[in-house]
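General statements about sequence and structure are easier to judge against a single worked case. For one protein, we set the task of working out the structure tokens from the amino acid sequence alone. This step matters because it turns folding into a mapping between discrete strings. The amino acid sequence and the backbone structure tokens for this protein are reproduced below.
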Amino acid sequence: MESKKNLKSQTSRSVSFVQRWKWKWSGNITNESLKIGDLDNDGNNEFVIGSITGTVGIFKGQMLWKSFENLGTITAVAIGDVWNNGNNSLIVGTGEGQCHIIEISKVNSDDEDSMENVITKTVTIPVPVNVSRILIADIDGDGYNELVLGRTDRFLHSFQLMKTDTSSTVTLDNNNTTGLAVIIIHNDNNTEKVLLREKKNWSFDGQLGSVALTYDQKKNPILMVAQPGGVVVLINKNGEIMKEKENTSNGSIEVSTELITDIKGVKGSNYSAMITMDGNINFYYKLKKEWTLQVNSQLFAISKIDCTNDGNEELVISSWNGLTYIVDHYMNVVEFDFEERVCAFIAGNYAIAPDKNVPCMFFVTFDDVIYVYYDICLSSIYLKTLSDVLDKDIEMHSDIIEELGFEPPANGKKRSRAQYAEIFQKLFYNTDLELLSEVHEELQERIHKLQISDVSNIRLNI
């Protein structure tokens, strides 16, 4: 059964994070121009940012590692295996109708300085104009990733990219609607042929929000396309629109919508979540809504990280005024109040050092500054009360409590404050020495069984 709550009636707490870096970055950006991923395929995740002035920056560790300029009006970036060769590339989309594909690979050398020991290749391919969303995923279940491009004029395109040498011939199937061949001449005079084949395209009534991939119960891919007002369009692997999920926004149908899929939880990674700018947070399992949470903020960005190190990924949701919510799968909320207004936000596992990918949050402000809060770690999202701690401790020593004459609560209920007071009253003031001596002997026996090495340091004074 779906749950629906307002944050005012929901237990939440505020937290502070102090470990952070501060980087300078100039130029206006869109939120889709931020990405975290393993760009150079070394197992360490990088942070990528692009500006509408045509500059892309790649950060590695605590520094700007590489930058590329004069790429056009950058509106979206993505990291993924677009060539289907097992290696990630950086895809940069522009408003002018260009798609830049940047490949960074290591040089086979004994040089240990891997920061500079790389080869960079850049391919530029003409694509439809006004790209605003990029997804690299196998959306039709054929075993090959497609390049999915969403546009501000409400069109969505699915392309297949293939790269061969110029002497090769590639046969396209009958389903292609557009084929484009681009000849690339490298600095070493080697040439390659890039084939761009449009497989499907769709038009929508509203502006495109997030485009993400999920799976049905038979593990068939389903493309999710967010529409204004909390509407999500589902497209099956054959390119057919299955249905539109109902409007979940409390306000205008023009309210922007963002979503995220493949969230890890206790039942696998079939969880997904959606936010709307008017403050709705919806959580789904296998496309079935589990709960809805309403907050008093204009939400614009959603990511996922495991900040409790329990194997379950929490939602990290940011608003324009900097207030950021960390939400677990049970609607427990932690708030982080960033001190400035935010123009772009992303969270994910980032390599702050070699072989150390840790949960991080990236805030980009209107003052051209990137704030990186790194190694985000919380003991729990749930706000533990004194009653929770006491219940756990008393349960561990239930036999001792029963010897004092207290029966366990019926039907799994928690003890009341009055019952706790009675237990402590008897423990502190009315416990007879004979019983306490028995408790002492039992504890000593437990210590011995646990094989504590330094038992001599443990003293129980009676």
